[in-house]
Amino acid sequence: MASVLLVDESRVNLRVMQYVLSREGHTLLMAESGLEGLYHLQDNAVDLVITEAHMQLMDGFEFVQHVRNNPSHLRLPILMLTNVGDEEVVRRARRSSVNGFLTQPLNSRQLREIVTRTLANRFQTRPLGTKILPDFGLSGLSL
């Protein structure tokens, strides 16, 4: 299966995601801050990232920006976890080039489905908010 990095300050959310995704056979890395998540990305091959939008020291948007600034992570699928009905987060997330959203409270079926779909399509999709460029080694860059 896949290697998934979970970034969330809430240990409850981390444990719920860990429980659901480990039962699906995924290898999980967990980080309780965006900075810890960046360290995991430096040291580990990851197939998917799920990050909370609202965190204290480095929020999910800043975390995504740091990830996307690394050329080797331009096409790394990132899902953002947000509260139901938080339209401002959805707007900001689209601009920050995430690939999709998960809403809280977490629903195990929804989590399994979006992770499975995102991983299945990770080689064909590009982050939200990106434009397709001619293939001069620049495809996938956010404009």
Question: Can you describe this structure?
Answer:
This protein is an alpha/beta fold and 143 residues long. The chain has a single domain, classed as Rossmann fold. The chain contains five helices and five strands; from the N terminus they run E-H-E-H-E-H-E-H-E-H. The C terminus is likely disordered.
Q: Stretches where pLDDT falls below 50 for ≥5 residues?
A: 131-143
Question: Rounded to an integer, what's the Rg over CA atoms?
Answer: 14 Å
Envelope shape? globular
Strand order of the largest sheet: 2-1-3-4-5
Second-tier CATH architecture = 3-Layer(aba) Sandwich
Order of helices and strands: EHEHEHEHEH
Number of domains: 1
Proportion of helical residues: 25-40%
Intertermini distance: 32 Å
Helix/strand/pairing category: alpha/beta
Mean pLDDT: 83
Q: Approximately how much beta-strand content do the residues carry?
A: 15-25%
CATH topology (level 3) name: Rossmann fold
CATH class: Alpha Beta
Work out the helix count.
Answer: 5
Largest sheet: 5 strands, parallel
